[in-house]
Specification:
The chain is an alpha+beta fold. The protein has nine helices and five strands; from the N terminus they run ααααααβαββββαα.
Length: 198
């Protein structure tokens, strides 16, 4: 019996281990280098300031305005804090929905790489993209799915004939099955025919 690698098949398989948390993506040394403190030090300061009762935007704002943290790093510290304190689960967005993403770098130019990735997504989902925005600064193709979910395909030049291709599956109502969804998307990336676009 074959493996169902489409969106419907992923939904049938049930939940698995959730995706990793914010701390797994960026090392503590990088946080210290960029912000001057370890995550746990930031978390202790936020606890002392009442951060567990604040919304995401208020936490990030406090880090930027009161502590002088760069806005990009403030977002990362905020998400890490929310996850560490049980305010937000790994993979959970500010609006309460969930998403996962994967990337891969291939030897190809942006346009052909995105077209090839869009063909793979269409083949796996049976859905055509709403638009294939090849001329945009960050070229994308968005695929609407049932229940308001979506898949977003992207392609970003890395120079020297290389392109980072990526997939995001977003607006998932539940965190169940995030790991399976990530594995599925990684399989889709791996099936992009590099020899055809390189």
């Amino acid at each position: 019996m074959g493996t169902d690698t489409g969106v419907a098949g992923m939904a049938k398989r049930g939940s698995g281990r959730a995706v990793g948390g914010s701390a797994e993506a960026v090392g503590d040394d990088a946080v210290v280098s960029a912000t001057g403190k370890k995550r746990e030090e930031w978390f202790a300061l936020l606890d002392a300031a009442g951060g567990t009762g604040w919304k995401h935007q208020a936490i990030a704002h406090w880090l930027v305005t009161e502590q002088g943290v760069d806005p990009w790093w403030a977002q990362g510290v905020t998400v890490g804090y929310e996850q560490a304190r049980g305010i937000r689960l790994p993979g959970q967005r500010q609006d309460g929905t969930f998403e996962v993403s994967v990337t891969r770098t291939i030897a190809a130019e942006v346009g052909p790489a995105l077209r090839a990735l869009a063909e793979v997504v269409t083949a796996r989902t049976g859905v055509e993209p709403l638009a294939l925005n090849l001329g945009a600064k960050h070229p994308t193709a968005r695929f609407p799915l049932a229940g308001g979910e979506f898949v977003l395909a992207s392609a970003t030049s890395r120079g020297a004939g290389k392109t980072a291709i990526g997939l995001v599956r977003g607006r998932m109502a539940s965190g169940d099955g995030l790991a399976e969804s990530k594995t599925m998307l990684r399989g889709w990336l791996d099936s992009v025919p590099v020899e055809a676009v390189g």
